[in-house]
Automatic annotation (TrEMBL):
The chain crosses the membrane at residues 58-79, 86-103, 119-140, 152-175, 205-232, 253-279, 299-322, 329-348, 398-419. Pfam families: OAD_beta. The keyword Membrane applies. Keywords: Cell membrane, Ion transport, Membrane, Sodium, Sodium transport, Translocase, Transmembrane, Transmembrane helix, Transport. It is found in: Cell membrane. Its main location: membrane. This is Sodium ion-translocating decarboxylase subunit beta. It is a multi-pass membrane protein.
Length: 420
């Protein structure tokens, strides 16, 4: 407290000396008095300060208030309803930061070269953050359920129909093939993959695509249950699946190695995503790199999630975001997500026509084919318990869920190789 008082006193003394000196100069020049000089400088200072405030700059673009409202809504959904809080809180805060009105030219905004946000956004623009997210996902994912019942991988592939259906829809609405490909990946319900692909094919639409992808991922518990109840009759929701077999350590170690080779040979363009996903899983399952796996699935993925969320949110400045194209993207994203969910459910029912006895699968798990890990698997579990309180589907649903992650990355690589 004493230091503060001393500092305040010194600053006050210096200001007084400057004021007195200005008065003497004005008096010697025969002009206005010291009081007039002070009032003139104070008036100009206040005017300059006012022009720097967000209140003044808001007059140039009042639409920023709409986006600030969107950011607050995201934070509300995350806190009140626990919808993807680890994503929506950073993104919502980023939306607010990106839409605070300011005077350009002072290296403040995300799109101003040399600003702090612009440097952080570099990781989004160049597709650096998504592979790091995939590394963390690989280090925290247990592929045992998929290894024990590999036929369920087909459901993860079937759910990707939403991606290609949306690609056709976006093309019909007038988007270029590259833009349509970036928009279509929203159907995979995989935010990092959507960011990675849009950074390569349609950087100008990245903000809208990323926000749409993460919004629909957060709304999985709202969107999927009505579709599941509509497509799957009650009698099929009651099907009980036999427990998955135990998976050996050797199988767990071999899976990421074989998966890496197989998927990257099919789709080399997805190497940054798939390579990091399987590398992270190998760190986890090898048993000799636990410290690295722990860093990848905890500290690193948390840091990258914060940076990704803030910068993606901040990229939604009203000037860039509130456009007709953004509205089209949100509409297409909703359709693609519903088509992807329905695709997984219908294909699960189709598979049951070829399966006999206790080999039949509960078609509800087809909804987990979208790669919103692990939320869509949890929704399947919840819906299964509503039909039968003793029917636990979570472990079975994780198989198409994790295969959906792989499937969306492969689909992104295929689109990239066709459209680049």
């Amino acid at each position: 407290m004493k230091r503060f008082i001393t500092l305040f006193g010194v600053l006050s003394l210096l200001f007084s000396l400057q004021f007195i000196g200005g008065g003497f100069e004005a008096f010697a020049a025969g002009g206005a008095g010291a009081g007039d000089t002070f009032l003139e400088h104070a008036s100009k200072g206040l005017e300059t300060f006012w022009k720097f405030t967000g209140f003044y700059n808001l007059m140039d673009n009042p639409a920023n208030l709409i986006m600030i409202g969107v950011g607050l809504f995201f934070i509300f959904l995350a806190i009140k309803y626990d919808y993807e809080p680890l994503l929506l809180v950073p993104i919502g805060t980023g939306v607010i930061l990106g839409n605070i009105p300011f005077m350009e030219g002072y290296k403040i905004g995300l799109y101003e070269e040399g600003s702090v946000l612009n440097y952080l956004y570099f990781g989004v623009q160049q597709g650096i953050y998504p592979p790091l997210i995939f590394l963390g996902i690989g280090a925290m994912t247990d592929f045992s359920s998929l290894i024990s019942n590999p036929k369920l991988m087909i459901l993860g592939a079937a759910a990707q129909v939403g991606i290609f259906a949306t690609f056709l829809g976006a093309s019909a609405l007038g988007f270029t093939p590259q833009e349509a490909g970036a928009i279509g990946i929203i159907g995979g319900a995989d935010g990092p993959t959507a960011i990675f692909l849009s950074s390569k094919l349609a950087p100008s639409l990245m903000g809208a695509i990323a926000i749409a992808a993460y919004s629909y991922m957060a709304l999985v518990p709202v969107i999927q249950p009505p579709i599941m109840r509509l497509i799957i009759p009650k009698r099929e929701r009651l099907i009980k699946m036999k427990p998955p077999r135990a998976v050996s350590k050797v199988e767990k170690i071999m899976f990421p190695i074989i998966g890496l080779l197989l998927t990257t040979f099919i789709s080399p363009s997805a190497l940054p995503l798939l390579g990091m996903l399987f590398f992270g899983n190998l760190l986890k399952e090898s048993g000799v790199t636990e410290r690295l796996a722990d860093t990848a699935r905890n500290a690193m993925i948390n840091i990258v999630t914060i940076l990704l969320g803030i910068t993606v949110g901040a990229s939604t400045q009203a000037d860039y975001f509130l456009t007709t194209d953004s509205l089209k993207i949100f509409g297409l994203g909703a359709v693609s997500f519903m088509v992807a969910t329905a695709g997984g459910l219908f294909f699960a029912r189709l598979m049951n026509t070829f399966l006999k006895g206790d080999n039949k699968i509960n078609p509800l798990i087809g909804a987990a084919g979208v790669s919103a890990v692990p939320d869509s698997a949890r929704v399947v579990q919840h819906e299964g318990l509503k039909s039968d309180p003793n029917n636990h589907l979570l472990m079975h649903a994780m198989a198409p869920n994790v295969s959906g992650v792989i499937g969306s990355a492969v689909a992104a690589g295929i689109l990239l190789s066709f459209l680049m």
